[in-house]
Amino acid sequence: MLKYNLDMVKDKYNALWVSHSSISDWLNCPRAYFLKNVYKDPKTGHKINLMSPPLNLGQAVHEVLEDLSRLPLERRFQGSLLEQFNKIWHPWFDPATELKYKERGREMLKKVEAHPGPLKNLAVKIKMDLPYYWLSESDNIILCGRIDWLEYLPKQNAVHIIDFKTGKGEESQNSLQLKIYYLLVGQTQERPVTKLSYWYLDRNDAPKSQSLPEAKTAELELLKIAKEIKLARKLERFKCPHGGCRYCQPYEDILAGKSKKVGTDSRGNDVYINSFEANANSSEIL
Asked: From start to end of the chain, where are the E strands?
């Protein structure tokens, strides 16, 4: 009850919410951060989302695996992961592209079914739709994020954070992702985090362990970046340092009318695909 009352006093609705994705956008390009996290189309009042085949693949595979954690152990692999994948797959692109990426997703899920590893064990579910905590009350900054999987480690009464990876590359050593998840899990449930892993689903049969960060150092690092973002929002200063780059230019193309709107996503954002993919899709339909 005390925590609830404190949250009511603190103004979380006007706080700056930062996550791994928004912080990554900022570090990549302030203009990209603005277009992806702040800008709303004046005609629809919606934020804009640029869909790509790899992103579509990643979202579908993550959704299938996230749904598993909600099931009791004995029911997790009773049904087919591939059937679930087929149901939720969204065909944004031309048939050839769809076939290529959908097959990649199917192969990943086949590997998981053959080697479920920690997915056969008890999982911890944080009782929040979107896990968050106050990174700084005085600065009115909240850190939030969704964690892919929390394996319960009964011998230690601890948790193992697992992040699923569907891309072909390895996560950078400088990535802040697991630092953010480490802080979030430590602040939003009572068990200690004793293990962190990436699971590269297209090539590994098991999660790949990562080193644990130092919590206070991680918090200070993230707070410094969050304060930069907050100042930029206050000053409305979101310039691309290169006058246009690979991170912001695809979103500039949306504003310039060069991309094709294909629908809305589950969060109500307007979804676009770039001009090349839009043209490919149109040629297939005709």
From this structure: 16-18, 48-50, 132-136, 141-144, 149-153, 158-165, 193-200, 208-210, 260-264, 270-273
d(CA 27, CA 57): 24
Yes or no: say if 23 and 219 are a contact pair by the CB < 8 Å rule.
Answer: no
In the block, which residue shows the tokens 């048939």? 95
In the block, tokens 């004793």 appear at 194
Identity of the amino acid at 120: K
255-278 pLDDT per residue, tens: 999 999 999 988 899 999 986 554
pLDDT at 46 over 70: yes
264 with 56: CB under 8 angstroms?
Answer: no
Residues 6 or more apart in contact with residue 224 via CB below 8 angstroms: none
Lowest mean pLDDT: which of 48-57, 170-179, 268-277?
Answer: 268-277
Instruction: Tell me the average pLDDT of the chain.
Output: 92
Q: pLDDT at residue 29 above 80?
A: yes
* DSSP state string for 44-65: T---EEE--HHHHHHHHHHHHH
Side chain identity at 251, as an amino acid letter? Y
CB-facing half-sphere around the CA of 242: CA atoms within 13 A: 9
What CATH architecture applies to the domain 2-235? Answer: Alpha-Beta Complex (3.90)
Burial of 182 (0-12, 13-18, 19+ CB in 10 A): buried
pTM recorded for the entire structure = 0.90
